[in-house]
Amino acid sequence: MRTAVALDDWALLRGGIEMTMRQHGISTVISVGTLSECVAQLNDRPGERQIDFIVVGQMKDSSQLAAVSRLAQTGAKVIAITPCATPSALVELCTEGAFGVLGRDGDLSAAVASVANGDRYVAPGLLATMFEPAAQIPHQPRFDLTERERQVLTELATGRSNGEISERLLIGTQTVKTHLSNIYDKLGVHRRTHAVRLALSHSLV
């Protein structure tokens, strides 16, 4: 049976997560309110089957972004339930490893079904914010990205890892790292999230 973790400081929401998981035949084996508790219980499962899904809400001991980044490293598919629907917040969550993102009033069942099927999911209402008309930029700088660098940046903006980019573009992971280094230099940034935010604001992808 597939397994899940429910992480949110509101017990009522955790109960809703558990109920939704049961509807999809998924057993919630950890249900806690803090990231530290979650990590501790994950570490106390030696020899156990890897967790399949982790639903991350809000917690008092960590930001949601940091929790998503930390828990994505477990190999589980992370679904973030966020109160913040700004385009930059959505991009950051996806970039840090969230497979699904929805608001507190979103359809968790639809998110679970999509992610369980191997697809990424962003709630339609949140996705719409990504395509709202942007404010006019008085001066549009040129970054002189190559075609391949634009392709890598486009893949990066969808939240894909270096390995996934390598597979999709049929290039080595070291080549991906080299392209990313060149992209960062040309954009004047040092992090993936900053590169994606700049790319979206300047219509580079």
Structural class call reads alpha/beta
Architecture of the largest domain, according to CATH?
A: 3-Layer(aba) Sandwich
Mean pLDDT: 87
Examine the coordinates and then state which fold CATH places here, giving the name of the CATH topology of the largest domain: Rossmann fold
Q: Show unreliable segments.
A: 134-140
- Order of strands side by side in the largest beta sheet? 2-1-3-4-5-6
- CATH class designation of the largest domain: Alpha Beta
Walk me through this protein's architecture.
- This protein is an alpha/beta fold.
- It has 2 domains: 3-129, Response regulator (Rossmann fold); 147-201, Winged helix-like DNA-binding domain superfamily/Winged helix DNA-binding domain (Arc Repressor Mutant, subunit A), CATH 1.10.10.10.
- It is 48% helix and 14% strand.
- A 6-stranded parallel β-sheet has the order 2-1-3-4-5-6, sandwiched between helices.
- The longest helix has 15 residues, at 173-187.
- The radius of gyration is 18 Å and the shape is globular.
- It starts with a strand and ends with a helix.
Concise summary:
Helix content is 48%, strand content 14%. By secondary structure, the protein is an alpha/beta fold.
Topology:
Elements: E1 3-7, H1 11-23, E2 27-32, H2 35-43, E3 53-56, H3 64-72, E4 77-82, H4 87-95, E5 98-103, H5 108-116, E6 121-122, H6 124-129, H7 147-157, H8 162-169, H9 173-187, H10 192-201
Parallel strand pairs: 1-2, 1-3, 3-4, 4-5, 5-6
Helix pairs in contact: 4-10, 7-8, 7-9, 7-10, 8-9
